[in-house]
Each structure stands twice: as C-alpha cells, then as structure tokens.
Amino acid sequence: MPHPPILRGIQQVITALRNVGHTVVEWQPYKHKDAVDLLNKILAADTGAAITRAIELSGEPIIPNIKKAIESNLPAIDLESLWKMQSDKYKYQKEYLALWRQQSHVDAWILPVAPHAAVKHDDFKYYGYTTVINLLDWPAVTIPVTFADKEKDIMNMQYKSMNDFDAKIYEDYDPDIYDGAPVGIQLVGKRLQEEYLLGLAEQIGKALVA
After folding, report:
1. pTM, two decimal places
2. Helices 32-43 and 79-102, interaxial angle, to 10°?
3. What's the number of domains the chain is made of?
4. Range of the domain at 40
5. Are 32 and 47 a contacting pair, CB within 8 Å?
6. Of 102, 126, 153, at which residue does a domain stop?
7. How much is the pLDDT for 44?
8. Residues near 32 by Cβ (< 8 Å), separated by ≥ 6?
C-alpha cells in the first residue's frame, strides 16, 4: 500500500486530468507479483557478481540498499534455466500487451514510482512499481506532483495489509520525517512510444497547474 502522500499525489493527478476533460479509469494489474519475482531471479542469475565487479571499479563501497539487493540469497542458475526465464519474460510481455490491446482506449498508466515520497537513506525496501515496467520493457517518465504534508497525509489506521511485507512498508510511514519530501508519479506507455509519452507527461504538467 503506498504511503498517504503518494495516494494524495495520484488523486491530485486524476482530479487535474478529469477537470480538463480527460477520462481516467482503474486498471487491474496482471500478475505483478510474478513479474517482480521473475525479474529478481534474472538479475540475480550470477548472484550479483557482475554488479559487484562494476561497483568495485569505482573504488567506492557498495551502498547498503544495493548490497541488500544483490545479497538476496537467490541461487546462481545455469544457462538453460536463464533461457527458460527469458522465455517466461517474453511470454509475460506478450500476454500483457494483448490485455492492453483489449483496452485500446487507455493511452497510459498512472502509478507510483515507489510506495513512499523521497525516501530516507538506506531505507528503500520495495522496487515493484518499477520492476514490472522494466520486465515489460515499456517506457516510463516520472512526473513531480507535490510534497508530503504531515497535516494532510494521515495514515489510515483501518488499512488491512495484504501480507507482512506490505504491513511493514505502510508502517514505515512517519509524517514528521516525510514532511516536505517530494512526491511524484510515473506515467507508463507502450513500447517505442517515448515521444508520445513525453507529450502526455507535458499535458499532465499543464493540467496540474490549470
């Protein structure tokens, strides 16, 4: 569950678009958890060896968040397994594109970049909102919307989490710490539509200040 500032930012974008005549509909995610799990396995195929070597060339230490990500305890895999994962990736991409074609009136998605506003150092825990887009190989652009406001962004104490990890992410929200932190959303489009997506992002920017 995104933190209150992110939910408010998304609602702000939705309201702005509707106010200038656009239609905004709800999109039902398709196997996003499976997509996150698949990309994590692909990225950890060599247990982080390539990433570690690249960082070592800088002569600088690995920041804690990256260190946690590459020390995921996922096993190294053989070439045959990697090819199978790549095949699964293409299958997922094909299935999702077919779903979007069934909803041809949808130009782009509006969704969080992360569950929180600008995050505290070394406290980035969930990458899923962008992981899915990376696996799909679709273009995305981040749009600044507003800033966290401890007076407006109040936790929903009645929220029932989907699982323990979801609960942990939501409980990490501290209105005082996040107060004033930038809030953005990402706009996602179909493959090879980067220029079109930038045009949509410009329209959202104009709508937000209209």
Report:
1. 0.88
2. 150
3. 2
4. 28-102
5. no
6. 102
7. 82
8. 128, 132
